[in-house]
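Regression check, flavin mononucleotide case 386:
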Amino acid sequence: MTGIDRRAVIRGLLSFPVGRKLLAEPSVMDPANVFDFRPLAKAKLDPIAWDYLEGGSEDEVSLRDNRDAFNRIIIRPRALVDVHKIDMSLDLFGTRLDYPILLDPAGGKNCFYMNGEIAVAQAAAKMKALHITNGGIQKVTETGKGPVWWQVTTGGEFRNTQTMRAFVKRLESQGCAGICFTIDIMYVSHRERNIHNRLERGWCETGIPPRDVQGKLPEARNPETAGIFPSRPFPTPTWETVKELRSMTKLPIVIKGILTREDTEKAVDSGASGVVVSNHGARQLDHVGGTIEALPEVVEGAGGRIPVLIDGGFRRGTDILKALALGATAVCVARPYLYGLAAFGQPGVERVIELLRTELALDMGLAGVPSLKHIDKSLVRVRGLR
Ligand SMILES: Cc1cc2nc3c(=O)[nH]c(=O)nc-3n(C[C@H](O)[C@H](O)[C@H](O)COP(=O)(O)O)c2cc1C
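Current build output:
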């Protein structure tokens, strides 16, 4: 039986209660942690979409570093502190959040689940999580009704002053709560899983549904595009662009993709409201280390003047706790909620957020830190160093 035939049979069986029982369809409550969602997501997706979701760039060294680096940080728990109440709330640019976990931007959500961008917006609103969207902002703000930031990369928005002004006006009129400017994607890297899969750049972003929904793979895949240096038609943004953007709007501007003290200082000088320590989920420049390794120098560079957020490999409450101890204000995640989305749609996203939030609360209780204010550098040490 071919893969597609098998999927058709499974779909048929799933439409009857007996069939569902026969197949023992997993429930959204089965996974005990973020990692448990991975195989469920993988089973639902076309292998090409899975590689697009999961993969990093080139040798995927940073992809491994993003996870491995957490293991070098040890928590120093405090005993006999009253932890009967755990308060994870914080204020971020005037928005009250119940917990310090945000949803990162991720292109291609519609390729992991039908109308995935909207499903994520709805889950985020229900869970009162801040969501950085890639999709039609108006649709997302109307549907989600939660705090939504819009992510912008190096597209046409920054081509000149007029395009930038029009862009800002559109966001302000459509209920956007902040701008996330992703600066680490001046070129799209070689994500070699995609090249091997002959995945044409843009396939996932165009919103084509996964094969098990659509029934077949799109034909528009062009192996010719792999390995060709993509020229840029107009100058790429600079710190001057950030200053200009700053002069046009009062919305918070968060620079995503910072990995050094120097750039953090430039972000502050350019009027940025905050930064996200990020290596784009290890999907852009490889060999930049795990993001948690860059966090201390970025926090130093910010010097308490702007909040420092971070993403990259966060899968556990303890990962989040370590970042908060090293000076992060909040943590963002992408793949975790994408696993939930691919496996179960909106309820999967909600459950992933719930699991992360519960783990963080539990870990705070176990570590003797009842609120975010109690968390500081003394809560961690680096393995081998006293
Ligand atoms: C499938 C996928 C698509 C992504 N698309 C974008 C994007 O459009 N813009 C962006 O700023 N970052 C994008 N990212 C990067 C994430 O926003 C985030 O920086 C990173 O994935 C966090 O690491 P994690 O996936 O380990 O949580 C994407 C990540 C994934 C996995």
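Comparison notes: Residues 53, 66, 104-108, 134, 151, 182, 256, 278, 280-281, 283, 311-314, 333-335, 338 surround flavin mononucleotide (CB under 6 Å). The first strand starts at residue 73 and ends at 75. No diff flagged against the previous build.
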